[in-house]
Amino acid sequence: MRRRLLGSVRSRAALAATLVVAVALVAAGVAVLLALRDNLGEQASSGADSAARRVATSLVSGVAPDSLDLDDEDHPVQVVDDDGRLIAATDHLERISGAGTDAVKPVAARSDDDDDDDRHGGSGGDDDGVGGSVSGSTDYTDGSATVDGDSADYRFAAVEVEDTAYGDLKVYAGASLAAEQSAVTTTSTAMLIGFPLLLVVVGTVTYLVTRRALRPVEGIRTEMAAITASQDLARRVPQPDTHDEVARLAATTNETLAALQESVERQRRFVADASHELRSPIASLRTQLEVGAAHPELLDVPGAVEDTVRLQELAADLLLLARLDAGERPGGAGVDLAALAREELSQRVGDRLPVTVEAVESAQVTGSRGQLARVLGNLVDNAQRHAAGAVVVAVGVDGGEAVLTVADDGDGVPPQERERIFERFVRLDDARSRDGGGAGLGLAIARDVAVRHGGTLTVRAAPQGGALFELRLPAN
């Protein structure tokens, strides 16, 4: 069941879409969280820096460390001297880490003018304490602090104050990271809840849309299975009234079925016609042999030979058609149609009418010499049967094509029948006897060979009033 489910295009499309969206959501979520944290962290850093510089400015203006106003619980402050001693701190500071020192109780600051004994520095109103400078750079650290029982994480900014009455000092001021942590937590929670729901929606919608889009494909598959089971090639698959790939698939499938049906029907007709054509000479030959066996003096040897020759020619035609239908490719040898025509026509004996060769010039083509000779022979045989007194063969080159024509002065071919005569077992003269008319395969073989050689074979009216068959092949 699992393999069947994963084998479904709908399931695979839904799974692929879900995975793609999941990767995109995770990447977007991480980017949002990082941007949010960086933005809020910058705000905390800015707040901590402002608080630290306010205190540093007070020290430079002459306010003594023990006189600083440090009752802002939102920004815990430490003032540390060169010896690392805490000389000022926010009121009610209970615990701190990540700042200058872990101490929370300040000690008395020592002025540079005092002796080595510990003495308090001057008061905030003493002008002797004025002096010093605030560094332009700020260092940042993360830590935590507890002020008046409230604990939180802070971003600490460290600002140096140099050359004060109390030496070089460093001011640490913190800004709470609670807003950053709350925003990141809230956003993360929303993503953890929303992303799975969104993925479920994406997967479901993709599955439903894909199922709807592929519904005609299932109809095509079902109909094809029914056609295969019933072997009824007249049936066609349903074609949706759309202009998408599925509609084109259905149209192509129906075209394939039509071509297959036509091919099968043509094959059936071919077998039936071939059986019919073979039946007459075989029956005639059998009759003659049976008569000869009973009455040797009545044996018609010439008639038996003639029937045997007809059987041999018909079998050869059927074999060649079978090879052509199987897709046999012509050879790749060079053939001169002019030389071929002269040689083949010189070997013909017993023709009813003489064959005249006119305007013969070299015309080189690529293909099978035997098959091309068969085309010429079939065209001349056809002309011999219908000509009144003349058969003319010509070979030439026209616009990059080798052209071979066979013309006669007979009755010609009606325009409406000029394509039908190239069908197998088609003979226009129904009154003509089979003995004199052939089996109706010669022109069909000639057309098939021409097509296999990349050329064409057509018929039109001849200047003499009969039929002119024109073979065109790509010239070398």
Which key terms come to mind for this protein?
Heat Shock Protein 90; five-stranded mixed β-sheet; 476 residues; alpha+beta; seven-stranded antiparallel β-sheet; Helix Hairpins; 9 helices; 48% helix
Question: Explain this structure to me?
Answer:
By secondary structure, the chain is of the alpha+beta class. It has helices at 2-6, 9-60, 178-230, 245-294, 301-325, 337-346, 369-386, 434-437, 442-452; strands spanning 77-80, 86-89, 93-97, 133-134, 139-147, 150-164, 167-176, 333-336, 355-360, 364-367, 391-398, 401-408, 456-461, 467-474. It is built from nine helices and 14 strands. A hairpin with a 5-residue loop joins strand 13 and strand 14. The longest helix has 53 residues, at 178-230. The protein has three domains: 1-232, no CATH class; 245-325, Signal transduction histidine kinase, dimerisation/phosphotransfer (DHp) domain (Helix Hairpins, Orthogonal Bundle), CATH 1.10.287.130; 333-474, Histidine kinase-like ATPase, C-terminal domain (Heat Shock Protein 90, 2-Layer Sandwich). The strands form three sheets. Strands 1, 2, 3, 4, 5, 6 and 7 form a seven-stranded antiparallel beta sheet that branches. A five-stranded mixed beta sheet has the order 9-11-12-14-13. It has a two-stranded antiparallel ribbon with strand order 8-10.
User: What's the domain count?
Assistant: 3
Q: Give me the secondary-structure category.
A: alpha+beta
C-alpha end-to-end distance: 61 Å
Instruction: Note the overall shape.
Output: rod-shaped
Number of helices: 9
What is the percentage of strand-forming residues? 15-25%
| Largest pleated sheet | 7 strands, antiparallel
Helix content: 40-55%
Cα radius of gyration in angstroms:
52 Å
Indicate the mean pLDDT: 84
Q: How many extended strands?
A: 14
Q: Which spans have pLDDT < 50 for at least 5 consecutive residues?
A: 115-128, 430-436
Order of helices and strands: HHEEEEEEEHHHEHEEHEEHHEE
